[in-house]
Specification:
- This protein is of the alpha+beta class.
- It folds into 4 domains: 210 residues, Response regulator (Rossmann fold, 3-Layer(aba) Sandwich); 99 residues, no CATH class; 92 residues, no CATH class; 176 residues, no CATH class.
- The protein contains 21 helices and 20 strands.
- The protein has a 7-stranded mixed beta sheet, with helices on both faces.
- The radius of gyration is 32 Å and the shape is globular.
- The N and C termini lie far apart (77 Å).
Length: 618
């Protein structure tokens, strides 16, 4: 992160402070050198005479004073970290996520004062819970480049990583590189260790964070920090060079060995906490981030009252994207005003009575669906109650970003995305959503098992009221009839953007991949006439009244099959893989209904060609 970026983010930093720092109310300090309330009470009662270092006690007092002296005081608790085992210490962290901020000493083991294992276990526990956790690792050490603080940052980043299968070499590649290195060792015994020296902890974490793509290793090979490794390979003996000692092959070997080394000394985590990003700058600003954890390491050379500003500087250096700020603001408003918002929702007692009646229906299937709807209504009510404050924040956020213009703001966080891809993802969000419900309904997209090589996707186009289990008696046992329209996949989503507004295209995310389908094929021209296509549909029957599992979304489908004068049924498996938003499903349902109700008229078209004199040629 450049210096200029943090400077130009000063106004943006105020918004960051508003959503990350201002909501802090509770702080937990974990340091084995600080006296706790329990220990002080024990000493007062004469049950303990544990001495504390005066400087450490003074530092603990300073932390409490700055927490209590803020305009909106922070509630602070001190935990000494002295539990019987490392497992107990990590388990104790399960209650610590209820605090808004943790100030954590890195060296909690007096038997091994240079070991940060206990602190890393606590950080892993926080990274694995369902809250976003802010942590200041407050420890001894200097902030000079390569100093103790920089080392601690790298150790924490590595400790939050798991082993990456992408770094494991294949058998053939490993055999080839080892044969070349064996030959090189005849002249240079330390060549393996020399190669490994170029893959430090920071380089390992950085490489692990690169997403899967075809040019992944090509990108890593271009890193300037690996130029020394490349130069070292250039010094290989001619006999080794002649056997094509490739830089990428040697690099893969080095990362494979680095990961094996970290695994052997138990530096890597056993649990996957997602992607791990980190940055450590020469001025001492640093941060480590996972999906649920943000950490900055601060030297105890800095006074406690500087910790909020150090945390803010680290957050500014991270430079979170605008929508993260907006979501964090929404979460903070719910925490701050949730009770008030709850009161506004619950104040409408007659409405609540009606909703309660819907929850208490005897039919378990209807009750499940009604519960789903009730939760949605209450979320909507909570959202409406906090909307004004969130809208004000969003307006200030947008006003600030307008200074750089749309292109500048987008490139700051997202690079230069291809416009057509952005449009496709916007359309996907507009027309579809994650699969909801526990039974088949209008707008569900089914992937149906077929003997054909190509996958078959069908869109449920029966009215939702006809699909509620048990609501209608069809006389077909537990099978619910429904109409399904066959969807035709487009060659690419970008190809459909020219006519996206026609409402014929469906942008869906299936298995994490964005795909585009057509409800009907585009019109064709035949003999100068435009022939409109109609939906290809089929009557199907869903077993168990269309109910499906809440996890795998699978159900059984019966389809008709004919052979000569005989009509039969084939049963096949289906999975609900996507769902249209209500308004899009209803729009297509109306179009489908119009197709079914069309009337064929006996008008005769022109069969002769007009001549230039107004006559016609036969």
């Amino acid at each position: 992160m450049s210096e200029g970026l943090v400077e130009r983010s000063s106004d943006y930093g105020q918004l960051i402070e508003e959503v990350f720092i201002d909501p802090i109310r509770t702080v937990v300090v974990v340091d084995d050198d600080y006296p706790t309330l329990d220990a002080l009470l024990d000493k007062e009662l004469g049950t303990s005479q544990a001495p504390w270092d005066k400087a450490d006690t003074q530092r603990a007092r300073e932390i409490m004073q700055f927490c209590h002296g803020r305009e909106r005081p922070w509630l602070v608790e001190i935990h000494d970290g002295r539990l019987p085992s490392l497992t107990a210490e990590a388990t104790a962290a399960t209650h610590l996520h209820h605090s808004d901020l943790m100030i954590l000493d890195y060296h909690l083991d007096k038997q091994h004062p240079s070991d940060g294992g206990k602190a890393i276990e606590i950080l892993r526990s926080l990274a694995g819970n369902d809250h976003f956790n802010l942590v200041i690792v407050y420890t001894k050490g200097n902030e000079e480049q390569g100093g103790d603080i920089s080392r601690v940052v790298q150790e924490i980043a590595v400790g939050l990583c798991t082993a990456d299968t992408r770094f494991v070499m294949g058998e053939q590649g490993a055999k080839r590189i080892n044969e070349l290195l064996d030959e090189w060792e005849d002249e240079r015994e330390s060549i393996r260790s020399e190669l490994m020296e170029w893959i430090g902890d920071a380089t390992f974490v950085k490489a692990r964070g690169i997403e899967d793509r075809n040019d992944r290793w090509q990108s890593i090979c271009s890193w300037p920090e690996l130029d020394g490794l490349k130069a070292l390979l250039e010094s290989a003996p001619p006999s080794v060079k002649a056997k094509k000692l490739e830089f990428k092959l040697a690099l893969k070997w080095a990362f494979d060995r680095k990961q094996a080394e970290l695994t052997a000394i138990s530096k890597l985590s056993q649990c996957d906490y997602g992607n791990v990003d980190f940055d450590s700058r020469p001025d001492g600003t640093n941060w480590i981030r996972t999906d649920r954890l943000f950490v900055t390491v601060v030297s105890k050379e800095h006074q406690p009252d500087s910790l909020p500003s150090r945390l803010l500087t680290a957050l500014q250096s991270w430079d979170p994207e605008p929508h993260r700020l907006l979501m964090s603001k929404m979460r903070a408003e719910l925490d701050e005003r949730g009770v008030l918002a709850e009161g506004k929702v619950l104040d409408k007692r007659l409405l609540q009575a009606g909703w309660l009646g819907e929850l208490l229906v005897a039919d378990p299937d209807r009750r499940t669906w009604n519960i789903h709807n009730a939760i949605g209504r209450h979320w909507e009510g909570l959202g409406d109650a906090i909307r004004a404050d969130v809208t004000d924040f969003a307006d200030r956020l947008a006003s600030h970003l307008m200074g750089a213009g749309p292109d500048g703001a987008i490139s700051r966080w997202y690079g230069s995305p291809i416009a057509s891809y952005v449009a496709c993802h916007l359309n996907r969000h507009a027309c579809s959503k994650p699969v909801e419900g526990v039974h088949l309904t209008t707008g569900h997209v089914l992937q149906i098992e077929s003997n054909l090589k190509a996958e078959q996707y069908w869109l449920c186009m029966s009215p939702a009221c006809d699909l509620v289990p048990g609501q209608k008696k069809w006389g077909k046992g537990n099978f619910t009839p429904f109409a399904a329209v066959s969807l035709t996949e487009a060659r690419s989503c970008a190809d459909t953007l020219s006519d996206a507004a026609d409402g014929n295209n469906l942008f869906l995310e299936i298995g994490g991949v964005l795909r585009c389908f057509r409800f009907v094929q585009p019109p064709k021209t035949q003999d100068g006439r435009i022939i409109a296509a109609h939906p290809k549909w089929e009557q199907m029957f869903a077993a168990d009244m269309g109910k499906f599992g809440s996890i795998n979304k699978s159900l059984s489908i019966a389809r008709t099959s004919g052979n000569g004068d005989e009509l039969g049924f084939n049963t096949c498996a289906a999975i609900v893989v996507a769902q249209l938003r209500y308004e899009y499903a209803i729009n297509l349902l109306h179009r489908f209904g119009s197709t079914l109700s069309r009337v064929g008229l006996d008008f005769v078209g022109m069969t002769a060609t007009p001549a230039g004199n107004g006559q016609t040629h036969p």
